[in-house]
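Narrative of activities, Objective 1.

The group set out to show that a structural description can be obtained from nothing but a protein's sequence at a throughput compatible with the screening campaign. Below is one input-output pair from the validation batch, recorded exactly as produced.
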Amino acid sequence: MLKDLIIAFASYIKAHQFIVKHKLWKWVLIPGIIYTVLFFVVINLFSSTASDFIVWMTLKSGLKVWMDSLTNSFAGFLFVVGSTLVWFMILLFYFSLFKYLFLIVGAPLFAYLSEKTAAILEGKEFPFVFKDFAHQALRGMYIAVRNGLWQTVYLLTILIICLIPIVGWFTPFMALLIECYYLGFSMLDYSMERKNKTAQESIYFIGSNKGLAIGNGIIFYMLHMIPIIGWLFAPCYAVIAATLSLDPKKQID
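Output recorded for this entry:
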């Protein structure tokens, strides 16, 4: 897995060089601007509802009344930590739903961008056939929906676990790894489909090379720590980096 992680990380550097060399900026900036605007809206929506949800949950469950009756400072500390973890999990849940919605809507563009990257990389043109292109887009939508459903199940399970003192402290790390894996999975699958691999073959291959998916997702999320610029570049850089990261994996041909 370590080797695959390194390949995935290095692929982002190669993706930047690839975009500059082949002047692909219009394919990066146009969807990047749309993504940035939508991301800003989602973050504002999250900030205005997450705290209210946590307060509502503690009131309805009776947890707040129970905590107010305690004088143990350690119990209060656990409550604060638990609330923070729940807040973080809700943030991931919001972001996950937004991400998959964008992947579903943007599937045609991402499929084309992955194909264009491969065409330049392999020095040959893939003829544009609308039927094949539509199939690739639908495949991308299917994978996004599938991954979104599975990830939602995992996140809801982890959300429950995070309420358990001490044990729940490790859940954000688990949730982030799952989030990174499924994001990278979606990005890698565009190349798998182009190589005529079925969804099941794609699931098996990416599952056997988890480092590629996780590494792609990690850098994607790290880019979000750079306001505006990182948001602009994250989605399309992830697609191109995923395509380039599969180049050393000749066994999928």
